[in-house]
Automatic annotation (TrEMBL):
Taxonomic placement: Bacteria, Bacillati, Actinomycetota, Actinomycetes, Streptosporangiales
Gene3D superfamilies linked to this entry: 3.40.50.2300, 6.10.250.690, Winged helix-like DNA-binding domain superfamily/Winged helix DNA-binding domain
Residues with PTM 4-aspartylphosphate: D58
Domain OmpR/PhoB-type, residue spans: 141-238
Protein name per the record: Response regulator transcription factor
Length: 242
């Protein structure tokens, strides 16, 4: 247990009582203050009322989806860290959740200790960067913006400097993942897992190929945004380094 853990309030939104109770008990054991909700609307109301430090959010809820809960929180201007708890782990679902404003994905069944570690890591990151400096932002219309890029995950459309950019579904998922993690180096393994899925594990050449596709389409419209970190991976960074 860390000294500052009791100050952190966690909201758990999950309709499965066994998972909800297990997670609640584990979090309380580790010193967190926990509130739980069994559906999306109740959870959304709780988030607005209690202003938690982090939300654990099931995707498949009985009323509105976890994706919709996260979308509404972001439209409210609430940047609370969100970790999805879900059995849906396809690359498309992962990128959809992240582009809607989620911060991490934990697939059921999961290790409670691993979940606690990810919660603490995300809380540390939020504390280091409380204003979200250098990160992408979601505007009032729900579009994701970074530098001169605008992504609309509902229409699967992209613009750079006001010019529409035609992307394939895989190119869009790759760019969306980079935008969501703007300013942070992402490894090839992370990209393979979250954009292509485990079936492509070890085939890192496909990452380089699709990054080159994105650069060919984006770079003619402005300064390069995708930087290579040799031996590690890639980072999406605005030209001024913000």
């Amino acid at each position: 247990m860390t000294d500052d853990a009791p100050a952190h309030r966690i909201l758990v939104i999950d309709d499965e009582p066994n998972i909800r109770d297990l997670v609640r008990a584990a979090l309380q054991f580790h010193g967190f203050d926990v509130e739980a909700a069994e559906d999306g609307e109740t959870g959304l109301a709780a988030a607005r009322r209690t202003r938690p430090d982090l939300v654990l959010l099931d995707v498949l809820l009985p009323d509105i989806s976890g994706f919709e809960v996260c979308r509404k929180l972001r439209e409210d201007g609430d940047d609370v860290p969100v970790i999805y708890l879900t059995a849906r782990d396809t690359p498309a679902d992962t990128v959809t959740g992240l582009t809607l404003g989620g911060d991490d994905y934990v697939t059921k069944p999961f290790s409670v200790e691993a979940l606690i570690a990810r919660i603490r890591a995300l809380l540390r990151r939020a504390r280091r960067d409380p204003a979200g400096a250098g990160a992408a932002v979601r505007d009032h219309s729900g579009q994701l913006r970074y530098a001169d890029l605008v992504l609309d995950d509902r229409q699967w459309s992209v613009e750079r400097a006001g010019v529409p950019v035609e992307l394939s579904p895989t190119e869009f998922r790759l760019l969306a993942y980079l935008v969501h993690n703007a300013g942070q180096v992402v490894t090839r393994s992370q990209l393979l897992e979250n954009v292509w899925g485990w079936d492509y594990a070890g085939q890192s050449q496909i990452v380089e190929t699709y990054v080159s596709y994105l650069r060919r389409k984006l770079d003619p419209l402005g300064p390069p945004l995708i930087r290579t970190r040799r031996g590690v991976g890639y980072v999406l960074q605005s030209p001024d380094g913000a």
